[in-house]
Structure formats: C-alpha cells, structure tokens
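Sample A.
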Amino acid sequence: EADSTASIQLIRNENDSITYQSSSKTKQFAVFSEIFYDRGWKAYVDGKETPIVKTDYVLRGLALPAGNHIIRFQFKPASYYNSLKMAVISSILAWVAIAAAIWQGVRMKKSTGFEKPNKGKN
C-alpha cells in the first residue's frame, strides 16, 4: 500500500558509511540511487543487518518495515579484514622470533663463558 507521507532523508555520507533516516506508516521498498555492489557493502536497519536487493539492474534497494528507522550502509569487505588479521598475526610471530633469537644468543653467550678480552691488562 502506498504511503504518500513516507520519506527518506540522507543524514551522513562518508566514504565507507552512508546513513539515512526513514519514516512511513506502512512497510515500503526503498530504491537508493547508489550502485549495487555485493562485495563488501552491508545494510543495517536500526542496527540489524538487512539484505540489499539488486534493483533496476544497477541500483540497490531495501525492504523497510513501517515506522521510523535509521538505515546504514557500510563498506566492510571481508578480504580487507582477513588481510588485516593476517598482518597482525605475522607481526606478532616476527616479534616472537626476534625475541627468541635474542634470548637464544644471550643464553649461548652465558653457557660458553664467552667474554670480551681485557685490553691493556696482563
């Protein structure tokens, strides 16, 4: 059922996050003038993830329940976050390896009794 008083207002448009506010007396289907791209974009209505529908071949749309809602599109590509996790794990492993090498060197120095020769003393 059409609601002539329904509205959607752009609240904030940032690189990786777009926020809208919607209001309607009945449930509606909203078409957004943004390109549908399913690799990384997520939609949330009042904080709850909602599926994005490919509309008119290139645009994105959402089914919205009746009432006042905050709609947020966020770009969260899994590949980026997986790469970030791998980078952190690799850095931790590298620091552990460096610390282990230093500890092993100190331990070897103590066990062999290696000391610097005294210069100028007999």
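Sample B.
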Amino acid sequence: MKKGIFSKRDRAVIVVLALCCKWSKALLSFSLLLSFALTYMSCGQVKVPEDVAAAYASLPEEIDFNRDVKRILSDKCFACHGPDAKKQKADLRLDIPEAAYAKVTESGLKAIKPGNLRRSEVIHRILSNDPEYRMPTPESHLTLTEQEKAILIKWIEQGAEYKPHWAFVAPEQQKPPAVEDEKWVKNPIDNFVLSAQEQRNLQPAPEADKETLIRRLSFDIRGISPSPTEVDQFIKDGSPNAYGQLVDKFLASKHYGERMAAYWLDVARYADTHGYLDDKHHEVSPWRDWVISAYNRNIPFDQFVTWQLAGDLLPKATQEQVLATGFNRMHKQNSEAGIIEEEFRVEYVTDRTNT
C-alpha cells in the first residue's frame, strides 16, 4: 500500500491486523480483516476520488510550498482568501499560516489542520461535488485539476508548512538526486533535470546537433547569432570539453554584458527621452554603459544594487558609485511650462519607489 493517503495510525492498524491474522490463525480470513481495516480508515480519513488518488501517486516524495503549493493558492484561492481585506470572504486568509491554521469554520473544522485531512475544511471543500459547498465556487470560473487537489492533500498531510518567498530563503547545498539512467548524466545539474523527468515518466529529448547548440548558446549568452567562423570551429572541435570552452568564450564577450543589461535596463525604465508630451532628449547613456560594464566585470549583486540606490551617500563615494545612481533619474520627467513642481516631485518619488 502506498504510503501517504492514510495516517500513520491507520497504516499501523493494517499491519497489526495482518499480524494477528498470521499469528493467531483466527477464523476470520485476511480479506475480512482487511475489509474491517478499510472501513475503519474511511471513517477516520477523507475519501479521496480515484482520479485524485491516481494523481497523488505520481507526486514527488516531498511537497514544497514555494514550488508546488503557492502557485495553486495564488491562482485559485487568493482572489477570495488572500491579503486584500476588501475582497476577503468568510473572514478567511490562506496566504499566511497564522490565519489559515486559526480559522474555525461553521462546521467546527479548522480551515487547515496541519497533518489532519479530516479536520481540514479546505480538503472537504475542494473534493466536494456540491456546487454550493465546493471551492473554488462555480461563480469564480476557477477549477482545481486532479493534480492540484492531490498536491494540496499531500501538502496538508505532510504538515502544511508555509515558507517565505523563495528570494528570502537562504540557498542550501543540495545533493544531486539519484537517477536510473546514469549514463545520460554529464554533470550534477543533469541529475536534477533527469530526476524530474523520470518522476513524470518522461524521456530526455535527443541531444541537439552542434549547429543548433552553438546557435542556442550564442543567443542565450550574447544575444546575437554566432558567426560562420565560430560555427565551423565548434563543429571541427572534437575535444570532450569543446562545449564548456565555448561557454567560457561567450561569457568573456563584451556582448554578454549587453545581453544581461537589457533585462535590467528594461525594468529600470531606461530611455533616451523624457517621456512626456515635451519629449526632449535625455542623455543617460553613461549610466547604461556602466550597467553593461558591471555585468561584464561581474561585480557583487549587493554592490550593484546599493550603488544604484545610494552610491552618492556612501563614505568617500567614487565617481563610479555616483554614476551608478543614474538609476534614480530613469523616471519620466516633465519640463512643460505651467507644471506644479511639488506635484511632479511626488510623481517622481512614487515612480522610483515602485521601480
């Protein structure tokens, strides 16, 4: 019997009854004992539909809140049970554990009872066929798939652990998982990729030819296509580390910084004009060049951010640190006659804060 759907106590009952059948040679057959055990468990646990149970069987051993659960709650639940107090229904929040664990429903159950499916209102709601009881409601035009229901079941069963946003969780050294097809693995990253595929009964796609590999790599790292000479050299290079050397070559290119900076310049709302009706030229290319240079030099991220926000406030600020604060002048600027200065000062501050 697959571990997970039933509690430890329920599984213990099956084991004890089986041993009693074996050792005592009771008149009751094992089938009768098993029937009694299943009846006992159906009273103490939640009846899981077959399609949800099948999805449950395909889930990974451990359910992670950030990876598996949060997206479901965010997409299907937070509209009515999220942080927005004006839209909350039934005075229930599912975005923070304190609220989800403490909330007692009309039926006397907790909204979420870690480790206890039967006492968790959420489980009964998502498995119900009653349109007036089921969650999400039909009026929301949202539905949970069998896999999403299975994930929530296993998450609550495993303790319903909430986690902070992944960006605020310190990274930990992870041991590469074991895989069945060890010959396919070329580096530790492959273990993680192949392990996830094997859990889903998927097979890796055939390895791309060298022309395709260098094209993909060049666009990913440099943002430009490889030259015919680079393609010919890569195809002729039969050494086992040819691909790794190509990666190092592209990372050392000045175009790497341009490629990476494009993302940052976009979110930092970089532009060469002021952006309002009187759209005058806004010369801030030195800051743009500094961002490109920062990526190519691979400066630490804390410096990269701190210098842009407050480089001029650092003790004995260098010219480079002051230049980095150009980030604070990327907002739209209005130089039209008749504007109210205080109004647009607030507009600019708001824009920088949001950015």
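B remarks: DSSP finds 17 helices and no strands in the chain. Residues 8-24 form the longest helix (17 residues).
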